[in-house]
Fold this protein.
Amino acid sequence: MLRHKPVSILVCRALVLMLVAILGLSSCSSVKLFVNGGEKQVKREPRPPAPGPYVLIFAFDGAGYDQLMAAIASGKAPAMAGMLGKDEGGGLYEHAYSAPNAVSILPSTTVAAWSAIFTGAPPAQNGVTGNEWFVREDMKFFAPVPVSVAEMDDNHAMITDNLVGRQLKVPTLFQQAGVRSSVSMNMVYRGADYFTIIDPTDMVSLFTEFVAGKDKHSSGKRDIYQQMDEDSVPKLLDSMKAHGVPNIQVVYFPGIDLYTHLAPDPLPMETAYLENVTDPLVGKILDAYRTYGILDQTYIVVIADHGHTPVLKDPRHALGANSSDGPEGVVEAAGFRPRKFVLNPGKDEQDYQAVFAYQGAIAYVYLADRSTCPNPGTTCDWKRPPRYKEDVLPVARAFYWANKRGRPVQLMKDTLDLVFARVPTPPGQLTNEYEIFDGHRLVPIWEYLMLHPRPDLIQLNRRMRWLSAGPYGNRAGDILLLSKSGLDKQIQERYYFSAPYHSWHGSASIQDSHIPLIVARKDYPGARLKELVDGIGGSEPSQLALVPIVRSLLVSERPAVAAAPVKPGSDQSGKPAAKSQ
Ligand SMILES: [Zn+2]
């Protein structure tokens, strides 16, 4: 049987894909959106300029907590270190607070994480559950950052046609805050006044080099990613010059993530990138605010979508490298017709009964009610949920035993950490939370963890609920596979759903999940910033705190009356806790 390989040429590299999107514009009418130096006016009537305070958000794609903090502490990132001031311990700095234990949502993967960050709502509420996902009631597969498919159409639409914004079911930060906003590069820009992006013509040669020279770049050259991040800065500064400084400015650097996926020694090389590439760019933007005379009226926020875990770049560990040897073979042996790994299957390829969407360490499996489509050539009624006993359980069992015994698919042996499933609900109804399949039955996550403590899976119950329970919880599949991952495992024991790379993420491990969340302001007491962040984020802050933090900063006291004496906040340090309900 010949099936398409899930060719993931590029992975969580939102912006390299953007290059494709932009290049694709040459014959498209939307090219006019970008002729003005890479700026797109998103709102028909931009909001008028307003006085401070300003919020400048540095959005670092793929910058893990330890890697970023190592860069800041190294003495080789003077712009960021200067912005924070003296380290007073426990995350407190002279002019900043860096939450020591902030976590990502699940999956710890780019498009889902930025969607949660810039809406304040978790995936099951906001509707964007991954880099790719399936909307069963429409039989529509979305892949704004393709992992299991090769087509770039959705990536193109992510840039030119607000694909992610259109799929979000809740308002973005820019809509909620209602102030003049500008976004550089990030895929969540709905409701902002301006969106700036690298100039397409400048990027032609870079893109060509990336595709042609992938192996060369996988040896650790970083020029192409560096250039992408660097080129984005003049675009946003030009926009600022033309329209004034917006109250919210998002500065998104995708190069960090792209580079780390392909770097042979990912974690130290990421830290070096943050020092040598990212930090000077941060310095340049802070200089602009200084020149405008508003740096002391500006809150600076730093956040990331996820960290990175080194993996082996080979088809044994890349479970999406050759589909028929991997998860696809398991559902097929369980009696399901899998969907082809393409963005839009042909007219005669609509009879699928199982759909995969890959997120690195996590894979979603969507199942049809097979009674609606028993024979090849018939299209299933995807508006109906799968049947629990006849459709969901057989697949949960098949993956459980494939993992235990390596049958019927040898490649799957000992690759999975956990298999999640749940009793399905019809589309449009609130979904049930995922539970853990223990080989016999579904066990609630909290109950499973009481019997089998897993401190290595950070806040698993809470974050799986965010992903799976809600109006759009069925966009995370009917079965969820979590591969073995984490720095506490040997690298040869880590697996991921995609083509081969040097590094991946998506899991619930601390390395993938622990993110920086920093708020800083020039000449402002860090203790006061700590109070604000702690007051909103609580004892277990997450990406969902970004929107309320920014909104709170925007209505904070005006800078001239800012620096009243403050009592130091209570000392709190330590990494994200595993336990949370
Ligand atoms: Zn990312």
Summary: Confidence is low (pLDDT under 50) at residues 1-37, 200-220, 560-573. Residues 218 and 262 are 5 Å apart (CA to CA).
